[in-house]
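Margin note: ligand = adenosine-5'-triphosphate.
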Amino acid sequence: MDPAIRVEQVSKSFNKKPVLRDIDLTIETGQLYGLIGPSGAGKTTLVKMIVGMEKTDGGTVMVLDEKMPNLAMLQNIGYMAQSDALYTELTGEENLKFFASLYKLKKDVQKQRIAYAASLVNLTGDLKKRVAAYSGGMKRRLSLAIALIQDPKILILDEPTVGIDPELKLSIWNELLRLKNEDGKTIIVTTHVMDEAERCDFVAMVRDGRIITSGSPQELKAMYGVERFDEVFLQAGGKQS
Amino acid sequence: MRVWALIKRIFRQMLRDKRTLALMFVAPLLILTLMYFLFNGNTIDPKLGVVGMDKSLIKALQKADIVVKQYDTASVDTITEDNLDGLMRENNGDLSLILQNDDPTVARALQLKVNQTAAAVFQVKLIKQNPALAGNMTQKSMDTTYVYGNKDTVFFDVLSPILVGFFVFFFVFIISGIGLLRERTTGTLERLMSTPIRRTEVVFAYLAGYGIFAVIQTIIVVLYSIHVLDIVLVGSIFHVILINLLLALVALSLGTLLSSFAASEFQMLQFIPIAVVPQVFFAGIFPLEGMADWLQAIAKVFPMYYAGDALKAVMYKGASLGDITGDLLALVVFAALFITLNIFALKKYRTL
Ligand SMILES: Nc1ncnc2c1ncn2[C@@H]1O[C@H](COP(=O)(O)OP(=O)(O)OP(=O)(O)O)[C@@H](O)[C@H]1O
Ligand SMILES: [Mg+2]
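Resulting structure:
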Protein backbone atom coordinates (compact mmCIF):
# COMPACT_ATOMS: atom_id res chain seq x y z
CA MET A 1 0.00 0.00 0.00
CA ASP A 2 1.16 3.53 -0.70
CA PRO A 3 2.30 5.46 2.34
CA ALA A 4 -0.28 7.86 3.79
CA ILE A 5 2.19 10.71 4.11
CA ARG A 6 5.48 11.33 2.31
CA VAL A 7 7.71 14.26 3.17
CA GLU A 8 10.66 14.78 0.87
CA GLN A 9 13.55 17.17 1.29
CA VAL A 10 11.45 19.74 3.11
CA SER A 11 13.19 22.85 4.45
CA LYS A 12 11.93 25.91 6.21
CA SER A 13 13.46 29.10 7.52
CA PHE A 14 11.94 31.84 9.63
CA ASN A 15 13.63 35.20 9.12
CA LYS A 16 16.61 33.53 7.42
CA LYS A 17 17.05 31.27 10.44
CA PRO A 18 16.73 27.64 9.31
CA VAL A 19 14.19 25.73 11.37
CA LEU A 20 13.86 22.55 9.30
CA ARG A 21 16.58 21.17 7.03
CA ASP A 22 16.00 18.54 4.35
CA ILE A 23 13.45 16.51 6.24
CA ASP A 24 12.51 13.14 4.74
CA LEU A 25 9.92 10.92 6.29
CA THR A 26 7.39 8.32 5.27
CA ILE A 27 4.34 7.41 7.29
CA GLU A 28 2.50 4.23 6.38
CA THR A 29 -1.27 4.01 6.37
CA GLY A 30 -2.53 2.82 9.71
CA GLN A 31 0.61 3.81 11.54
CA LEU A 32 0.79 5.66 14.83
CA TYR A 33 3.77 7.92 14.29
CA GLY A 34 5.40 9.79 17.15
CA LEU A 35 7.47 12.94 16.79
CA ILE A 36 9.68 13.72 19.74
CA GLY A 37 12.43 16.21 20.30
CA PRO A 38 13.37 19.14 22.51
CA SER A 39 11.37 22.30 22.65
CA GLY A 40 11.94 24.49 19.60
CA ALA A 41 13.19 21.58 17.51
CA GLY A 42 10.64 22.20 14.77
CA LYS A 43 7.96 19.57 15.45
CA THR A 44 5.05 21.97 15.25
CA THR A 45 6.46 23.58 12.11
CA LEU A 46 6.77 20.15 10.51
CA VAL A 47 3.22 19.03 11.25
CA LYS A 48 1.83 22.38 10.10
CA MET A 49 3.56 21.85 6.79
CA ILE A 50 2.01 18.42 6.47
CA VAL A 51 -1.41 20.01 7.01
CA GLY A 52 -0.47 22.70 4.47
CA MET A 53 -0.90 25.60 6.89
CA GLU A 54 2.72 26.59 6.61
CA LYS A 55 4.47 27.12 3.32
CA THR A 56 7.55 25.03 2.61
CA ASP A 57 10.69 26.77 1.38
CA GLY A 58 11.64 23.67 -0.58
CA GLY A 59 10.72 20.04 -0.96
CA THR A 60 7.35 18.33 -1.27
CA VAL A 61 4.72 17.01 1.08
CA MET A 62 2.38 14.31 -0.22
CA VAL A 63 -0.71 13.25 1.69
CA LEU A 64 -2.71 10.29 0.35
CA ASP A 65 -0.88 10.75 -2.96
CA GLU A 66 -1.89 14.39 -3.30
CA LYS A 67 0.61 17.20 -3.18
CA MET A 68 0.00 19.58 -0.29
CA PRO A 69 -1.28 22.21 0.18
CA ASN A 70 -4.54 20.86 -1.12
CA LEU A 71 -7.93 22.11 0.00
CA ALA A 72 -9.92 18.96 -0.69
CA MET A 73 -7.38 16.87 1.20
CA LEU A 74 -8.03 18.87 4.37
CA GLN A 75 -11.35 17.05 4.61
CA ASN A 76 -9.29 13.94 5.43
CA ILE A 77 -7.05 15.55 8.02
CA GLY A 78 -8.05 16.20 11.59
CA TYR A 79 -5.66 18.68 13.14
CA MET A 80 -5.25 19.58 16.77
CA ALA A 81 -3.06 22.62 17.28
CA GLN A 82 -0.57 22.91 20.11
CA SER A 83 -2.34 25.97 21.48
CA ASP A 84 -6.09 25.82 21.77
CA ALA A 85 -7.80 27.96 19.19
CA LEU A 86 -11.41 28.06 20.31
CA TYR A 87 -14.22 30.60 20.21
CA THR A 88 -14.53 31.38 23.88
CA GLU A 89 -17.81 33.31 23.54
CA LEU A 90 -19.45 30.17 22.20
CA THR A 91 -20.36 26.99 24.02
CA GLY A 92 -18.45 23.77 23.49
CA GLU A 93 -21.28 22.43 21.41
CA GLU A 94 -21.41 25.52 19.22
CA ASN A 95 -17.67 25.22 18.61
CA LEU A 96 -18.10 21.60 17.55
CA LYS A 97 -21.08 22.46 15.36
CA PHE A 98 -19.20 25.30 13.70
CA PHE A 99 -16.29 23.11 12.70
CA ALA A 100 -18.63 20.30 11.71
CA SER A 101 -20.37 22.61 9.25
CA LEU A 102 -17.02 23.72 7.84
CA TYR A 103 -16.55 20.07 6.89
CA LYS A 104 -20.08 20.08 5.45
CA LEU A 105 -21.36 17.26 7.61
CA LYS A 106 -25.06 16.51 7.28
CA LYS A 107 -27.30 17.37 10.23
CA ASP A 108 -27.79 13.82 11.49
CA VAL A 109 -24.13 12.88 10.97
CA GLN A 110 -23.20 16.10 12.75
CA LYS A 111 -25.25 15.17 15.82
CA GLN A 112 -23.83 11.71 15.93
CA ARG A 113 -20.21 12.87 15.56
CA ILE A 114 -20.62 15.59 18.17
CA ALA A 115 -22.00 13.07 20.63
CA TYR A 116 -19.17 10.63 19.86
CA ALA A 117 -16.35 13.19 20.05
CA ALA A 118 -17.71 14.78 23.21
CA SER A 119 -18.09 11.48 25.03
CA LEU A 120 -14.62 10.40 23.95
CA VAL A 121 -13.08 13.38 25.73
CA ASN A 122 -15.57 13.28 28.57
CA LEU A 123 -17.19 16.63 27.80
CA THR A 124 -20.77 15.56 27.22
CA GLY A 125 -21.98 17.20 30.42
CA ASP A 126 -20.18 20.47 29.69
CA LEU A 127 -21.22 21.01 26.08
CA LYS A 128 -23.72 23.75 26.95
CA LYS A 129 -21.17 25.77 28.88
CA ARG A 130 -19.30 28.63 27.27
CA VAL A 131 -15.70 27.81 26.51
CA ALA A 132 -14.66 30.90 28.47
CA ALA A 133 -15.74 28.99 31.56
CA TYR A 134 -13.71 25.88 30.68
CA SER A 135 -10.57 24.83 32.50
CA GLY A 136 -7.30 24.45 30.59
CA GLY A 137 -7.69 20.70 30.35
CA MET A 138 -11.29 20.99 29.18
CA LYS A 139 -10.21 23.32 26.38
CA ARG A 140 -7.53 20.84 25.37
CA ARG A 141 -10.13 18.08 25.28
CA LEU A 142 -12.49 20.17 23.21
CA SER A 143 -9.68 20.83 20.72
CA LEU A 144 -9.14 17.10 20.45
CA ALA A 145 -12.86 16.52 19.93
CA ILE A 146 -12.84 19.10 17.11
CA ALA A 147 -9.93 17.29 15.43
CA LEU A 148 -12.03 14.13 15.35
CA ILE A 149 -15.28 15.75 14.28
CA GLN A 150 -15.29 14.88 10.57
CA ASP A 151 -14.01 11.33 11.11
CA PRO A 152 -10.82 12.01 9.13
CA LYS A 153 -8.51 9.32 7.76
CA ILE A 154 -5.50 11.11 9.15
CA LEU A 155 -5.14 12.61 12.59
CA ILE A 156 -2.39 15.10 13.34
CA LEU A 157 -2.24 15.89 17.03
CA ASP A 158 0.25 18.41 18.37
CA GLU A 159 0.86 17.54 22.03
CA PRO A 160 -2.70 16.31 22.54
CA THR A 161 -2.49 15.31 26.20
CA VAL A 162 -0.83 18.33 27.79
CA GLY A 163 -2.87 19.38 30.80
CA ILE A 164 -5.04 16.28 30.81
CA ASP A 165 -5.25 14.10 33.93
CA PRO A 166 -3.64 10.63 33.84
CA GLU A 167 -6.90 8.73 33.90
CA LEU A 168 -8.39 10.58 30.94
CA LYS A 169 -5.03 10.52 29.19
CA LEU A 170 -5.07 6.74 29.37
CA SER A 171 -8.57 6.51 27.94
CA ILE A 172 -7.68 8.93 25.14
CA TRP A 173 -4.66 6.84 24.24
CA ASN A 174 -6.71 3.68 24.28
CA GLU A 175 -9.16 5.35 21.91
CA LEU A 176 -6.32 6.47 19.63
CA LEU A 177 -5.05 2.89 19.49
CA ARG A 178 -8.57 1.65 18.78
CA LEU A 179 -8.97 4.21 15.96
CA LYS A 180 -5.73 2.98 14.49
CA ASN A 181 -6.37 -0.73 14.89
CA GLU A 182 -10.08 -0.90 14.07
CA ASP A 183 -10.59 2.02 11.69
CA GLY A 184 -7.13 1.95 10.13
CA LYS A 185 -6.49 5.62 10.80
CA THR A 186 -3.08 7.13 10.35
CA ILE A 187 -2.08 9.19 13.39
CA ILE A 188 0.79 11.59 13.97
CA VAL A 189 1.40 12.67 17.54
CA THR A 190 4.02 15.06 18.83
CA THR A 191 4.87 14.62 22.46
CA HIS A 192 7.35 15.28 25.22
CA VAL A 193 6.07 12.38 27.27
CA MET A 194 8.24 9.31 26.81
CA ASP A 195 5.73 6.67 27.82
CA GLU A 196 3.43 8.08 25.13
CA ALA A 197 6.24 7.91 22.60
CA GLU A 198 6.76 4.32 23.58
CA ARG A 199 3.21 3.42 22.62
CA CYS A 200 3.78 4.61 19.04
CA ASP A 201 4.56 2.22 16.20
CA PHE A 202 7.34 4.42 14.96
CA VAL A 203 9.17 7.33 16.52
CA ALA A 204 11.22 10.04 14.88
CA MET A 205 13.34 12.37 16.91
CA VAL A 206 13.68 15.91 15.66
CA ARG A 207 16.53 18.07 16.84
CA ASP A 208 17.72 21.38 15.42
CA GLY A 209 15.55 20.95 12.37
CA ARG A 210 16.79 17.48 11.46
CA ILE A 211 15.51 14.00 12.10
CA ILE A 212 18.44 12.60 14.00
CA THR A 213 17.10 9.14 14.61
CA SER A 214 14.00 7.09 13.92
CA GLY A 215 12.60 3.60 14.29
CA SER A 216 10.17 1.60 16.37
CA PRO A 217 10.59 2.08 20.13
CA GLN A 218 12.08 -1.44 20.43
CA GLU A 219 14.55 -0.78 17.63
CA LEU A 220 15.62 2.47 19.16
CA LYS A 221 16.12 0.95 22.57
CA ALA A 222 18.18 -1.83 21.05
CA MET A 223 20.15 0.60 18.94
CA TYR A 224 21.23 2.63 21.93
CA GLY A 225 21.46 -0.40 24.17
CA VAL A 226 19.24 1.03 26.87
CA GLU A 227 16.41 -0.26 29.02
CA ARG A 228 14.17 2.76 29.32
CA PHE A 229 12.94 4.85 26.45
CA ASP A 230 13.78 8.24 27.96
CA GLU A 231 17.45 7.19 27.85
CA VAL A 232 17.11 7.00 24.09
CA PHE A 233 16.04 10.59 24.11
CA LEU A 234 19.03 11.66 26.21
CA GLN A 235 21.54 9.51 24.37
CA ALA A 236 20.43 10.52 20.90
CA GLY A 237 20.40 14.14 21.92
CA GLY A 238 23.78 13.89 23.61
CA LYS A 239 25.43 12.24 20.66
CA GLN A 240 24.38 15.08 18.43
CA SER A 241 25.81 17.93 20.46
CA MET B 1 -22.41 26.39 3.12
CA ARG B 2 -19.15 27.28 4.82
CA VAL B 3 -19.66 31.01 4.41
CA TRP B 4 -23.02 30.67 6.07
CA ALA B 5 -21.54 28.75 9.01
CA LEU B 6 -19.01 31.54 9.48
CA ILE B 7 -21.63 34.26 9.27
CA LYS B 8 -23.76 32.48 11.84
CA ARG B 9 -20.79 32.23 14.14
CA ILE B 10 -19.92 35.93 13.80
CA PHE B 11 -23.53 36.75 14.60
CA ARG B 12 -23.54 34.60 17.70
CA GLN B 13 -20.32 36.18 18.92
CA MET B 14 -21.55 39.72 18.30
CA LEU B 15 -24.90 39.16 19.94
CA ARG B 16 -23.18 37.83 23.07
CA ASP B 17 -20.92 40.85 23.27
CA LYS B 18 -23.36 43.43 24.56
CA ARG B 19 -20.79 46.16 25.00
CA THR B 20 -19.57 46.02 21.45
CA LEU B 21 -23.15 46.07 20.26
CA ALA B 22 -23.80 49.15 22.35
CA LEU B 23 -20.68 50.82 21.00
CA MET B 24 -21.82 50.16 17.48
CA PHE B 25 -25.45 51.22 17.81
CA VAL B 26 -25.62 53.73 20.65
CA ALA B 27 -22.29 55.54 20.62
CA PRO B 28 -22.73 57.20 17.19
CA LEU B 29 -26.15 58.48 18.25
CA LEU B 30 -24.77 59.89 21.48
CA ILE B 31 -21.95 61.71 19.73
CA LEU B 32 -24.21 63.08 17.01
CA THR B 33 -26.66 64.34 19.61
CA LEU B 34 -23.87 66.00 21.54
CA MET B 35 -22.55 67.66 18.39
CA TYR B 36 -26.04 68.83 17.55
CA PHE B 37 -26.41 70.65 20.85
CA LEU B 38 -22.87 72.00 20.68
CA PHE B 39 -23.34 73.60 17.30
CA ASN B 40 -26.89 74.78 17.85
CA GLY B 41 -26.11 76.76 20.98
CA ASN B 42 -27.50 80.32 20.92
CA THR B 43 -25.04 83.00 19.98
CA ILE B 44 -24.65 85.57 22.72
CA ASP B 45 -24.63 89.30 21.92
CA PRO B 46 -21.16 90.83 21.85
CA LYS B 47 -20.24 93.31 24.61
CA LEU B 48 -18.78 96.62 23.49
CA GLY B 49 -17.38 99.35 25.69
CA VAL B 50 -17.62 102.92 24.39
CA VAL B 51 -15.94 106.14 25.44
CA GLY B 52 -17.17 109.59 24.43
CA MET B 53 -19.53 108.54 21.70
CA ASP B 54 -22.58 110.45 20.53
CA LYS B 55 -26.04 109.21 21.42
CA SER B 56 -27.24 108.39 17.92
CA LEU B 57 -24.36 106.00 17.30
CA ILE B 58 -24.85 104.25 20.65
CA LYS B 59 -28.54 103.80 19.90
CA ALA B 60 -27.74 102.41 16.49
CA LEU B 61 -25.23 99.98 18.00
CA GLN B 62 -27.77 98.78 20.54
CA LYS B 63 -30.26 98.24 17.77
CA ALA B 64 -27.71 96.01 16.05
CA ASP B 65 -27.80 93.62 19.04
CA ILE B 66 -24.63 94.86 20.66
CA VAL B 67 -24.52 95.23 24.41
CA VAL B 68 -23.09 98.70 24.89
CA LYS B 69 -21.40 99.74 28.10
CA GLN B 70 -20.41 103.39 28.50
CA TYR B 71 -17.22 104.50 30.19
CA ASP B 72 -15.82 107.92 30.98
CA THR B 73 -12.31 106.67 30.56
CA ALA B 74 -11.15 103.27 29.52
CA SER B 75 -7.94 101.58 28.48
CA VAL B 76 -6.89 98.23 27.02
CA ASP B 77 -6.97 96.86 30.55
CA THR B 78 -10.64 97.66 30.81
CA ILE B 79 -11.32 95.15 28.05
CA THR B 80 -9.72 92.28 29.91
CA GLU B 81 -11.00 93.39 33.32
CA ASP B 82 -14.64 93.73 32.27
CA ASN B 83 -14.36 90.97 29.68
CA LEU B 84 -15.51 93.20 26.83
CA ASP B 85 -15.36 91.92 23.28
CA GLY B 86 -14.25 95.33 22.10
CA LEU B 87 -13.73 98.97 23.04
CA MET B 88 -14.68 101.85 20.78
CA ARG B 89 -13.38 105.39 21.18
CA GLU B 90 -13.81 108.68 19.42
CA ASN B 91 -10.94 111.10 19.05
CA ASN B 92 -11.75 114.37 17.29
CA GLY B 93 -14.29 112.63 15.07
CA ASP B 94 -12.00 109.67 14.33
CA LEU B 95 -13.32 106.33 15.52
CA SER B 96 -11.05 103.58 16.81
CA LEU B 97 -11.90 100.04 17.77
CA ILE B 98 -9.87 97.71 19.99
CA LEU B 99 -10.90 94.06 19.76
CA GLN B 100 -10.19 91.50 22.45
CA ASN B 101 -9.92 88.80 19.77
CA ASP B 102 -9.76 85.85 22.16
CA ASP B 103 -12.25 84.27 19.79
CA PRO B 104 -11.56 85.41 16.22
CA THR B 105 -15.08 84.57 15.03
CA VAL B 106 -16.67 86.80 17.65
CA ALA B 107 -14.15 89.59 16.99
CA ARG B 108 -14.72 89.52 13.26
CA ALA B 109 -18.52 89.56 13.66
CA LEU B 110 -18.32 92.51 16.05
CA GLN B 111 -16.00 94.43 13.76
CA LEU B 112 -18.36 93.93 10.83
CA LYS B 113 -21.38 95.09 12.82
CA VAL B 114 -19.63 98.14 14.23
CA ASN B 115 -18.37 99.14 10.79
CA GLN B 116 -21.77 98.84 9.20
CA THR B 117 -23.52 100.72 11.98
CA ALA B 118 -20.97 103.52 12.05
CA ALA B 119 -21.17 103.90 8.28
CA ALA B 120 -24.96 104.06 8.36
CA VAL B 121 -24.99 106.64 11.13
CA PHE B 122 -22.40 108.69 9.30
CA GLN B 123 -24.50 108.60 6.15
CA VAL B 124 -27.58 109.83 7.98
CA LYS B 125 -25.53 112.72 9.34
CA LEU B 126 -24.29 113.65 5.91
CA ILE B 127 -27.79 113.67 4.53
CA LYS B 128 -28.93 115.91 7.36
CA GLN B 129 -26.15 118.37 6.58
CA ASN B 130 -26.70 118.28 2.88
CA PRO B 131 -30.20 117.06 1.93
CA ALA B 132 -29.31 117.39 -1.73
CA LEU B 133 -27.23 114.25 -1.48
CA ALA B 134 -30.17 112.23 -0.23
CA GLY B 135 -31.35 111.27 -3.69
CA ASN B 136 -28.43 109.13 -4.71
CA MET B 137 -27.58 108.02 -1.20
CA THR B 138 -30.77 106.49 0.14
CA GLN B 139 -29.96 103.02 1.21
CA LYS B 140 -31.34 100.40 -1.05
CA SER B 141 -32.04 97.32 1.00
CA MET B 142 -30.43 94.39 -0.71
CA ASP B 143 -32.58 91.44 -1.59
CA THR B 144 -30.77 88.22 -0.66
CA THR B 145 -31.69 84.73 -1.77
CA TYR B 146 -29.81 81.47 -1.22
CA VAL B 147 -28.90 78.75 -3.69
CA TYR B 148 -28.57 76.16 -0.88
CA GLY B 149 -30.23 76.36 2.50
CA ASN B 150 -31.70 79.64 3.77
CA LYS B 151 -30.89 82.49 6.13
CA ASP B 152 -31.31 80.16 9.10
CA THR B 153 -28.69 77.70 7.86
CA VAL B 154 -26.12 77.02 10.55
CA PHE B 155 -22.73 75.38 10.32
CA PHE B 156 -24.12 72.14 11.75
CA ASP B 157 -26.42 71.74 8.76
CA VAL B 158 -23.42 71.65 6.46
CA LEU B 159 -21.36 69.61 8.86
CA SER B 160 -23.91 66.97 9.79
CA PRO B 161 -23.99 65.02 6.51
CA ILE B 162 -20.25 64.55 6.85
CA LEU B 163 -20.53 63.60 10.51
CA VAL B 164 -23.15 60.97 9.77
CA GLY B 165 -20.84 59.41 7.21
CA PHE B 166 -17.79 59.68 9.39
CA PHE B 167 -19.34 57.96 12.38
CA VAL B 168 -20.57 55.12 10.22
CA PHE B 169 -17.03 54.82 8.86
CA PHE B 170 -15.33 55.02 12.23
CA PHE B 171 -17.38 52.50 14.15
CA VAL B 172 -17.55 49.95 11.36
CA PHE B 173 -13.78 50.25 10.90
CA ILE B 174 -13.02 49.68 14.55
CA ILE B 175 -15.42 46.84 15.18
CA SER B 176 -14.70 44.81 12.06
CA GLY B 177 -10.97 45.40 12.36
CA ILE B 178 -10.84 44.25 15.94
CA GLY B 179 -13.19 41.36 15.15
CA LEU B 180 -10.85 39.86 12.59
CA LEU B 181 -7.84 40.75 14.70
CA ARG B 182 -9.20 38.74 17.60
CA GLU B 183 -9.62 35.84 15.24
CA ARG B 184 -5.92 36.18 14.44
CA THR B 185 -4.59 36.65 17.96
CA THR B 186 -6.58 33.76 19.44
CA GLY B 187 -5.21 31.50 16.70
CA THR B 188 -8.65 30.59 15.40
CA LEU B 189 -7.92 32.11 11.99
CA GLU B 190 -4.93 29.82 11.63
CA ARG B 191 -7.06 26.97 12.92
CA LEU B 192 -9.63 27.77 10.20
CA MET B 193 -6.89 27.39 7.65
CA SER B 194 -6.56 23.73 8.59
CA THR B 195 -10.13 23.17 7.42
CA PRO B 196 -11.16 23.06 3.76
CA ILE B 197 -12.29 26.70 3.73
CA ARG B 198 -11.10 29.04 1.01
CA ARG B 199 -9.53 32.41 1.73
CA THR B 200 -12.21 34.11 -0.33
CA GLU B 201 -14.88 32.38 1.75
CA VAL B 202 -13.32 33.76 4.93
CA VAL B 203 -13.18 37.29 3.52
CA PHE B 204 -16.72 37.26 2.19
CA ALA B 205 -18.10 35.73 5.36
CA TYR B 206 -16.48 38.50 7.33
CA LEU B 207 -17.82 41.14 4.99
CA ALA B 208 -21.30 39.69 5.18
CA GLY B 209 -21.28 38.96 8.91
CA TYR B 210 -20.10 42.37 10.01
CA GLY B 211 -21.77 43.93 6.98
CA ILE B 212 -25.21 43.08 8.31
CA PHE B 213 -24.43 44.86 11.56
CA ALA B 214 -23.04 47.77 9.58
CA VAL B 215 -26.25 48.00 7.57
CA ILE B 216 -28.37 48.10 10.71
CA GLN B 217 -26.07 50.70 12.26
CA THR B 218 -26.15 52.84 9.13
CA ILE B 219 -29.92 52.83 8.93
CA ILE B 220 -30.27 53.68 12.63
CA VAL B 221 -27.78 56.55 12.39
CA VAL B 222 -29.37 58.01 9.25
CA LEU B 223 -32.94 57.75 10.54
CA TYR B 224 -31.98 59.20 13.90
CA SER B 225 -30.14 62.14 12.37
CA ILE B 226 -32.99 63.01 10.07
CA HIS B 227 -36.05 62.31 12.18
CA VAL B 228 -34.82 63.03 15.69
CA LEU B 229 -32.06 65.58 15.21
CA ASP B 230 -33.90 67.12 12.28
CA ILE B 231 -30.80 67.47 10.13
CA VAL B 232 -31.58 69.06 6.79
CA LEU B 233 -32.31 66.53 4.12
CA VAL B 234 -33.19 67.98 0.75
CA GLY B 235 -32.45 64.90 -1.36
CA SER B 236 -33.67 61.33 -0.99
CA ILE B 237 -33.08 59.37 2.21
CA PHE B 238 -32.46 56.25 0.14
CA HIS B 239 -29.53 57.90 -1.54
CA VAL B 240 -28.17 58.85 1.86
CA ILE B 241 -28.45 55.24 3.01
CA LEU B 242 -26.88 54.01 -0.21
CA ILE B 243 -23.86 56.27 0.19
CA ASN B 244 -23.43 55.26 3.80
CA LEU B 245 -23.72 51.57 2.99
CA LEU B 246 -20.98 51.85 0.40
CA LEU B 247 -18.91 53.79 2.88
CA ALA B 248 -19.51 51.11 5.52
CA LEU B 249 -18.33 48.48 3.05
CA VAL B 250 -15.16 50.47 2.48
CA ALA B 251 -14.63 50.82 6.24
CA LEU B 252 -15.28 47.14 6.74
CA SER B 253 -12.80 46.01 4.14
CA LEU B 254 -10.21 48.58 5.22
CA GLY B 255 -10.61 47.62 8.88
CA THR B 256 -10.14 43.92 8.23
CA LEU B 257 -7.25 44.64 5.87
CA LEU B 258 -5.36 46.83 8.33
CA SER B 259 -5.98 44.34 11.11
CA SER B 260 -3.69 41.95 9.28
CA PHE B 261 -0.85 44.38 9.89
CA ALA B 262 -1.59 44.68 13.58
CA ALA B 263 -0.38 42.23 16.18
CA SER B 264 -2.67 43.38 18.97
CA GLU B 265 -5.71 45.50 19.71
CA PHE B 266 -3.38 48.27 20.78
CA GLN B 267 -1.63 48.23 17.42
CA MET B 268 -5.02 48.31 15.74
CA LEU B 269 -5.85 51.51 17.60
CA GLN B 270 -2.61 52.97 16.27
CA PHE B 271 -4.14 52.96 12.82
CA ILE B 272 -6.75 55.49 13.92
CA PRO B 273 -4.52 58.58 13.67
CA ILE B 274 -3.13 57.33 10.37
CA ALA B 275 -6.12 55.93 8.57
CA VAL B 276 -9.17 57.43 10.25
CA VAL B 277 -8.48 60.91 11.56
CA PRO B 278 -7.16 62.32 8.24
CA GLN B 279 -10.44 61.21 6.67
CA VAL B 280 -12.13 64.01 8.62
CA PHE B 281 -9.79 66.63 7.22
CA PHE B 282 -10.57 65.72 3.65
CA ALA B 283 -14.26 65.03 4.08
CA GLY B 284 -15.26 68.56 3.14
CA ILE B 285 -15.45 70.20 6.56
CA PHE B 286 -12.53 72.34 5.52
CA PRO B 287 -12.87 73.75 2.03
CA LEU B 288 -10.66 71.75 -0.27
CA GLU B 289 -10.22 74.58 -2.79
CA GLY B 290 -8.11 76.50 -0.30
CA MET B 291 -5.67 73.66 0.21
CA ALA B 292 -2.29 73.37 -1.41
CA ASP B 293 -2.27 71.33 -4.62
CA TRP B 294 -0.45 68.40 -3.08
CA LEU B 295 -2.95 68.30 -0.23
CA GLN B 296 -5.80 68.26 -2.70
CA ALA B 297 -4.13 65.33 -4.42
CA ILE B 298 -3.80 63.47 -1.12
CA ALA B 299 -7.45 64.13 -0.34
CA LYS B 300 -8.43 62.07 -3.35
CA VAL B 301 -7.01 58.87 -1.86
CA PHE B 302 -9.30 59.11 1.16
CA PRO B 303 -12.69 57.41 0.79
CA MET B 304 -14.31 59.98 3.09
CA TYR B 305 -13.54 62.67 0.51
CA TYR B 306 -15.97 61.05 -1.93
CA ALA B 307 -18.50 60.05 0.71
CA GLY B 308 -18.45 63.52 2.26
CA ASP B 309 -18.92 65.14 -1.12
CA ALA B 310 -21.81 62.86 -2.01
CA LEU B 311 -23.52 63.18 1.37
CA LYS B 312 -23.28 66.96 1.34
CA ALA B 313 -24.61 67.02 -2.20
CA VAL B 314 -27.62 64.85 -1.40
CA MET B 315 -28.51 66.05 2.08
CA TYR B 316 -27.77 69.75 1.79
CA LYS B 317 -27.99 70.50 -1.90
CA GLY B 318 -30.59 67.93 -2.88
CA ALA B 319 -28.49 66.28 -5.58
CA SER B 320 -29.92 63.35 -7.51
CA LEU B 321 -28.32 59.98 -8.01
CA GLY B 322 -26.91 61.14 -11.35
CA ASP B 323 -24.97 63.92 -9.66
CA ILE B 324 -23.14 61.57 -7.34
CA THR B 325 -22.36 58.60 -9.56
CA GLY B 326 -18.70 59.62 -9.67
CA ASP B 327 -18.45 59.56 -5.89
CA LEU B 328 -20.31 56.27 -5.59
CA LEU B 329 -18.09 54.72 -8.22
CA ALA B 330 -15.00 55.83 -6.33
CA LEU B 331 -16.32 54.16 -3.17
CA VAL B 332 -17.02 50.95 -5.08
CA VAL B 333 -13.48 51.00 -6.42
CA PHE B 334 -12.07 51.47 -2.91
CA ALA B 335 -14.13 48.59 -1.54
CA ALA B 336 -13.17 46.28 -4.40
CA LEU B 337 -9.51 47.16 -3.94
CA PHE B 338 -9.53 46.55 -0.20
CA ILE B 339 -11.44 43.29 -0.54
CA THR B 340 -8.92 41.99 -3.07
CA LEU B 341 -6.05 43.02 -0.82
CA ASN B 342 -7.75 41.23 2.06
CA ILE B 343 -7.77 37.99 0.13
CA PHE B 344 -4.08 38.48 -0.61
CA ALA B 345 -3.28 39.31 2.99
CA LEU B 346 -4.59 35.91 4.05
CA LYS B 347 -1.94 34.31 1.85
CA LYS B 348 0.27 34.68 4.85
CA TYR B 349 -1.53 31.60 6.15
CA ARG B 350 -2.19 29.52 3.10
CA THR B 351 -1.96 29.89 -0.63
CA LEU B 352 -5.38 28.39 -1.33
N1 LIG C 1 6.01 32.11 13.06
C1 LIG C 1 7.30 31.98 13.42
N2 LIG C 1 8.16 33.00 13.22
C2 LIG C 1 9.45 32.88 13.56
N3 LIG C 1 9.99 31.79 14.11
C3 LIG C 1 9.20 30.74 14.34
C4 LIG C 1 7.81 30.79 14.01
N4 LIG C 1 7.26 29.61 14.37
C5 LIG C 1 8.26 28.87 14.88
N5 LIG C 1 9.42 29.54 14.88
C6 LIG C 1 10.72 29.03 15.34
O1 LIG C 1 10.91 27.75 14.77
C7 LIG C 1 11.52 26.89 15.68
C8 LIG C 1 10.70 25.62 15.79
O2 LIG C 1 9.47 25.91 16.36
P1 LIG C 1 8.36 24.80 16.62
O3 LIG C 1 7.17 25.46 17.15
O4 LIG C 1 8.21 24.00 15.38
O5 LIG C 1 9.06 23.92 17.74
P2 LIG C 1 8.48 22.65 18.50
O6 LIG C 1 9.40 21.55 18.20
O7 LIG C 1 7.06 22.46 18.18
O8 LIG C 1 8.67 23.08 20.01
P3 LIG C 1 7.74 22.74 21.27
O9 LIG C 1 8.07 21.36 21.68
O10 LIG C 1 8.17 23.72 22.29
O11 LIG C 1 6.34 22.90 20.84
C9 LIG C 1 11.66 27.65 16.98
O12 LIG C 1 12.99 28.05 17.11
C10 LIG C 1 10.77 28.83 16.83
O13 LIG C 1 11.37 29.94 17.45
MG1 LIG D 1 5.34 22.54 19.16
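Residues 82 and 158 of chain A are 5 Å apart (CA to CA).
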